[in-house]
Amino acid sequence: LMALTAAAKTEPTATGAFRVRRATVFLSGTGPTTAALEFTFPAQTPSQVGESASWPLAAISPGRDAVLSFHWQDSFRGPTTGYHVLQVVVGDRVLWEADVAGGDLLSQRIEIPLAARDLPPAGAPLDLSLRLWAKQPVTNFAVRVQVALPTLTAGGEAVSLLDSPPLPSVVPWPPEPALPALPPVGAWTWRAHVIQPWGATQAIAVNEAEVWAPRLAREHGFNAVIVLPPAAHNAISGKLGLPGGSRHISEDGFRRAVELYRREGFRLILYSSIMHCGHDPRWQHGELARTRPEWAMRDAAGDTVNRYRNPWLCPSTGALQATLDYTAELVRTYGPDAVMLDNNEFMSTESGRWTCTCDACEKAFRRHLVRTFGEGILPGTAIDTAAAALPADDTDPLWGLWLAFRNRIWAEACEAFRDTLRQIRPEVVLLANTQYLYGTGLLAVDGQYDHLDAVLSESRGLSGLQMLSKMLLGRALARGRPLWNYIGTFEEKDLTRLRPPDVLAGLCAASAAAGANPWVVFYGFTGEENQASLAMLRTCSDFYRDHAELLGAAALQGDVGILLSTESRDLFHVPVAPPAMEDLLRAGVALQPVRDVSGVTADEFGPAAVMVLPGNPCLRESTARVLADWVRAGGVLIVTPQAGWCDESGRWRRESALAAALGVPATALGTHPCGRGLVACVADSAAAADAARARSPSVLRAATPVAVVRQRAADGRRVLCLVGLEQPVGSVTLSLPEGIAAAQLLMPGHEPQAIAVTAETTVVIPERLGVVVYAP
């Protein structure tokens, strides 16, 4: 480096969409530190070469050889190179750089030697900065990069280049007011096997109902159908496009079709929504956009969400009552068994900004703060609850409360629908399409599950392993409600084609093993090219229908529990289905997923002797106490050092709630005895999976990856679901409990087989799913 004599920069700079700010960062071994920076770049945003965010480090040249050190980590999953880079810049020279998104989420400690000959004289300013820089243009590459504890060491003396303000004490906040929930209805939802025509195929399903109602029921085993009412269907459908006819349906034809489907034993589910009024013509043709602009979801710039043509509607506005009135009239008119609200969520605008910050949401947020905290200053802040502005970003002390409030908006909307619709038809079921695996808190769906009669989600573009992991997450979120799964059975680029039979077999096996009722879109049910896939889909569907009491209606009985945190996802970008889930499933460990929510009890841990907290900073104090009692009673808790350092609003604690509840240094690496149990703190999620696997009972030996789901049926029978993750299960050797005299093997497309039980029982399963059933 050339000698540097320029005066040090004093202010951070940012160009384009890059940003940098002071932050609190967690480092393994040291806990949270405030001597840290966070660089960010948003999703759905282009960048140009040379755009950057830079933070100057207040450094004085030591005039001798020195070492610059710091810790850093980034949020991006998966390896890629040459786009965003983190740099150390001295003057106008790049002294060091590394690719952001190198595939590693773990913090690294970097040491960079500085030669005395390359530094200004002792005591002179050192023009030193950290920079996140665009090396190549990007169009959608969101990332956050954290840098902590930058230190300059020379002659044995270390100088911190960022101050470290103490963490504020966390003032306890009261829980938000309870939101009563009606009890679930619809016992039929446990055995629902759902078909959903859409667009052109709804015209076929309705206009040719005399053909398709019996075929879908008798040949394919479907017993529930989701349809749009005629006006909504016609609003989204072109007049032509089907061989020999129109895409439109008539009112008389629709009523006749409903009668035919009911005659075949179908439950009728009507499609609706809050965000676009179920595609009703008033929304679809722009009437509501013109006459009710105040009903639109809006971001901080006032922009609207315009997917599907017109602005999405916000449930904090009069749109809630309007869409409820619309749906109530559908229930009066057609007498459905259920209503499904599509896209029951907030969304980002084209700029990537979150919604909703409309006037109605801001007023409702203030009312919510006053109901929760009372009038006056919010404890621990200088904010007047009655005059609070919506937070602009996650540096605002209201950010966590706002995210929770966004979830509550949709929960209240669901409960309003249940209450009103049940007054018309007491047994009507309410469903909502919730994308609960989403990577951030954008959608705000996590408050809804207790206010729905079954939990459902679309699952497209997933592998069998990812499908199984998602469905087990769904079981944890549903907490005893039926789980429905929209299986991506069709080719995304050609809706007339089903996916190959082996792909469908893997997806259906994973979905069924986790106990999710199948929900299939009516695509690809004709054509010679689809027949093999259709036969496979029929075989899998028949199997689930015939054994629903052993799958969805059974209780999970995992050997290893895993605590899942939606708040850690929303506030700290920790995957809600952490990598440890897939690691353990691939290793054949039966999981017991549990969501960290108010009121969680040790009963939800089931028979698990081991619990894992894989990287969740957020933890409720009440959950920490439940875990502590469970450990003292003999449980083994495996954690990573981040566990419990933040409350459910994302506020950093001075001590981990888990360590405080246990009375041992639970987040320090190592093993810590506690009562009759122990806590093992390991470095990261992968190490947590390894530690849990080492302590879990061996269920099977197999030549290829086989996942295990263990359940207990209502009649007491034990159920062991074996899922071939990459190919058919093949030959496996099982270790069944002692005293089992006989067992039975069930497989799609096969007659039940008796199993002769020995100390090590070997069975051959030529399918992607095998279910072993035995009495305890």
Which SSEs are present, and which pair or pack?
Layout: E1 13-14, E2 19-27, E3 31-41, E4 52-60, E5 66-74, E6 84-90, E7 93-99, E8 108-114, E9 125-134, E10 143-154, E11 157-160, E12 194-196, H1 200-207, H2 209-219, E13 224-227, H3 230-236, H4 251-263, E14 267-272, H5 281-284, H6 287-291, H7 319-334, E15 338-341, H8 359-373, H9 399-424, E16 429-432, E17 455-459, H10 464-478, E18 483-487, E19 490-491, E20 494-498, H11 501-513, E21 516-521, H12 531-546, E22 555-556, E23 560-564, H13 566-572, H14 579-586, E24 591-595, E25 610-613, H15 621-632, E26 636-639, H16 657-662, E27 670-674, E28 677-681, H17 685-695, E29 700-702, E30 706-712, E31 718-724, E32 730-734, E33 742-746, E34 753-756, E35 761-765, E36 769-774
Parallel strand pairs: 12-13, 12-21, 13-14, 14-15, 15-16, 17-18, 18-21, 23-24, 23-25, 25-26, 26-28
Antiparallel strand pairs: 1-4, 2-3, 3-10, 4-9, 5-8, 5-10, 6-7, 6-9, 10-11, 19-20, 22-30, 27-28, 29-32, 30-31, 31-36, 32-35, 33-34, 33-36
Helix pairs in contact: 1-2, 2-4, 7-9, 10-11, 10-14, 11-12, 14-17
Overview of this structure, please?
This protein has 776 residues and is α/β, with parallel strands linked by helices. The chain has four domains: 13-160, Sandwich (Jelly Rolls), CATH 2.60.120; 191-349 and 400-554, Aldolase class I (TIM Barrel), CATH 3.20.20.70; 560-695, 3-Layer(aba) Sandwich (Rossmann fold); 704-774, Sandwich (Immunoglobulin-like). Helices cover 25% and strands 26% of the residues. It has 17 helices and 36 strands. It has an eight-stranded parallel β-sheet. Strands 2, 3, 5, 8, 10 and 11 form a six-stranded antiparallel β-sheet that branches. Strands 22-30-31-36-33-34 form a six-stranded antiparallel β-sheet. Strand 30 and strand 31 form a beta hairpin. Helix 2 (209-219) runs parallel beside helix 4 (251-263) and helix 10 (464-478) packs parallel to helix 11. The protein is globular. The termini are far apart. The model is unreliable at 1-9 and 240-244 (pLDDT under 50).
